[in-house]
Amino acid sequence: MDELDRAAAAHRAGDFEAAERGYRAMPNDPRAMHNLAVLLATLHRHEEAETFFRRSLELNPQAGPPAFSLSMQMLARGAYAEAWPFYEGRRNQPGLFIPHVKQLPEWKGEPLEGKRLLVVGEQGFGDQIQFARFIPALCRQAKVTYLCSDRLVRLFAGQPFQAIAGEIGAPAAHADAWTLVGSLPLRLGITLGNLPPPLPLPVRWRGAHGGGVGVVVRGRPTHTHDAHRSLDQVSAERVLAWGRDLAPEATGARDFLETAQIIAGLDAVVTVDTAIAHLAASIGAPTWILLARQGQDWRWLRQGPGSPWYPSARLFRQGPEGGWAAVLDEVEAQLTAQGLR
Predict the structure, then answer these.
(1) How would residue 1 be classed by pLDDT, with cut points 50, 70 and 90?
(2) Range in 45-59, 61-75, 106-120 the model is least confident about
(3) Where would I find the TPR repeats (predicted)?
(4) Does position 118 have pLDDT exceeding 80, yes or no?
């Protein structure tokens, strides 16, 4: 077992001090520097983590994972303009399976007047909802088609772009260029200061009128951080007692439009960080999002009760001690204070 393997073994075993010592002993190994940065981020030593992600990139400029990981750190602190170029490293991130359209030139911000543009959805349902807000700006110049999940097509009805599902080949044959939906913030120069509101969807929240609370206790188990973001059984049972389970297997909803129609009649939604959080907040429903301390997603920033992406969202964060009990106590107290319990 070589030096890097020993440090990585200590890392996996939870001996973080030994792992950190081992990684630091290899300052010219890009893998060691990346692993060290990952470890430091796990320990919430974010400034140091950025330093070592940058060091890993200096040693291996073509590597995707350290660029993507560095973008996560910068986005989480709100440095959007600096972060978006590094966010392109997700294309080489193992496990993300970012699409690529070989048949067409990729659009990189040049004029689109009179062009036909294919915008390709990526990552999860929530990402495809969240980033769709950037597409209407393109429709002022181009005819735009959004290739997204089949469960989102009806949700995007009535937009200035056409939403379709299926394989890339057919829509690519009728386009002049393509882009990833997650690359639009880079191409459009998006910062926290010019972030557009959520895409106006065909369903809107109807206001509090005694419709009760909807709840979501788990995300997709294939998500990298699902073990952190989804609730344990005891916590899940507690939250499910607060209202209606919005999971599709519980509601029978066939797609996100039908789920949105259910949410529109509720007083509020309490959810873990999953696609329904994006959906509920996009239609303007009061959306209370439960955030784990470990593996917390960049889009919620690192502190504060609100989100620049969703004005109707309220964030309930685990404290340094972790665990859901204190978070759920706070949410339950707020539900009671608002007459929702």
Answers:
(1) low
(2) 61-75
(3) 30-63
(4) yes
Residues 315, 306: Cα–Cα separation, whole Å = 6
For residue 234, give the amino acid letter. Answer: V
CATH number of 116-188: 3.40.50
Q: Give 67-101 pLDDT, tens digit per residue.
A: 999 999 999 999 999 999 999 999 988 888 899 99
Class of domain 213-337: alpha beta
What is the residue-wise DSSP string for 225-249? THHHHSPPHHHHHHHHTTSEE-SHH
d(CA 275, CA 130): 9
Task: Please write the tens of the pLDDT for every residue from 229-259.
Answer: 899 999 999 999 999 999 999 999 999 999 9
CB-based burial of residue 78 (10 Å sphere; 0-12 exposed, 13-18 middle, 19+ buried)?
middle
Contacts of 118 (CB under 8 A, 6+ apart): 101, 104, 144, 145, 147, 168, 171, 172, 175, 177, 178, 179
What are 128's strand-pairing partners? Answer: none
Best CATH choice for the domain 3-92 from the list 3.40.50.150, 1.10.760.10, 1.25.40.10, 3.40.50.300: 1.25.40.10
How do 213-216 and 177-180 pair as beta strands? unpaired
